[in-house]
Amino acid sequence: MGETAPGSGFRTQHIAATDVQRLVAALDLQDAAAGVRRLRSWTHDTLAPRSGQRVLDVGSGTGSQTVRLADAVGPEGEACGVEPNPGLRAVAEERAAAAGSRARFTDGDALALPAADGSVDLVWCERVLQHLTEADRAVAEMARVVRPGGRVALLDTDWATTILHPGEPEVMAAYTAAAVAAAANPYAGRRLAGQLEAAGLVVEDRGAQALLQDHRAVPWPLVRMLGASAVRRGLLTEDQRDRAHAGLEEAAGRGGLHMSVTMFAVVARRPS
């Protein structure tokens, strides 16, 4: 649940070098999360990449999924990660080279993909749309570049599904409202199927996974940030926030804390 929302476009090229290091660390933690791994595996199985296919990974980050896709399409295929941040691209290129992967990476924006119409077999896009105020345009771009019969896989978080427990329902609802307010596109997960259909694609399957936070490793800075945001927005008093935080800490100490957000995946096909 430590993802950030840069704002009104896929503008990670503006992230400072020190922030890139923190982002890489966060992406590595997400790569290791059991829930993320399960939803990714389901999506890869549903997308069914084959040898010789051309794949585009939109918002490829550290390149972990670009490398996995490159392995699936083999030496006769091609997997290209589109990533606007040069620091992340450098990390992806270094890791791909160390793994002996044929994955390659290029600069590009989700709103103007560097690919011709109908030129790729498969598109993968994970946790990008939540950061975009023009997510519909990005999905239309993916639909543009995929060939007839090709598939697009979208995976994204829906921040309105944030759950914190225990606590008074109205107080915990304020924490969820703060999480929603922090994202450019907080309802990204629930919108995926409709966006794909609106772009002229046919939804083939949908999946979901609750990302559960281990009560022994709660991201307290994030919880405090959400509480502070709720106070600033007038949703909570400082006393309510402090009592809520104390209650959550007590619950974590006895194994009774629940913290989660749900991530969704949709795979769709461009009609032949």
Percent of residues in helices: 40-55%
The share of residues in extended strands comes to 15-25%
Q: Average the pLDDT over all residues and give the rounded result.
A: 93
At CATH level 3, the topology is Rossmann fold
Itemize the secondary structure elements and their pairings.
Layout: H1 17-32, H2 34-47, E1 54-58, H3 64-73, E2 78-82, H4 86-98, E3 104-106, E4 120-126, H5 135-145, E5 146-165, H6 169-182, H7 188-198, E6 202-212, H8 220-232, H9 238-253, E7 258-269
Parallel strand pairs: 1-2, 1-4, 2-3, 4-5
Antiparallel strand pairs: 5-7, 6-7
Helix pairs in contact: 5-7, 6-8, 8-9
Organism: Streptomyces tropicalis
Protein name: Methyltransferase domain-containing protein
GO molecular function: methyltransferase activity
What can you tell me about this protein's structure?
- This protein is an alpha/beta fold and 272 residues long.
- It has one domain: Rossmann fold (3-Layer(aba) Sandwich).
- Helix content is 43%, strand content 23%.
- Strands 3-2-1-4-5-7-6 form a seven-stranded mixed β-sheet, with helices on both faces.
- Helix 5 packs across helix 7 and helix 6 packs across helix 8.
- The longest helix has 16 residues.
- The radius of gyration is 19 Å and the shape is globular.
- The two termini are 38 Å apart.
- The N terminus is likely disordered.
Compose a concise summary of this entry:
With 272 residues, the protein is an alpha/beta fold. It has helices spanning 17-32, 34-47, 64-73, 86-98, 135-145, 169-182, 188-198, 220-232, 238-253; strands spanning 54-58, 78-82, 104-106, 120-126, 146-165, 202-212, 258-269.
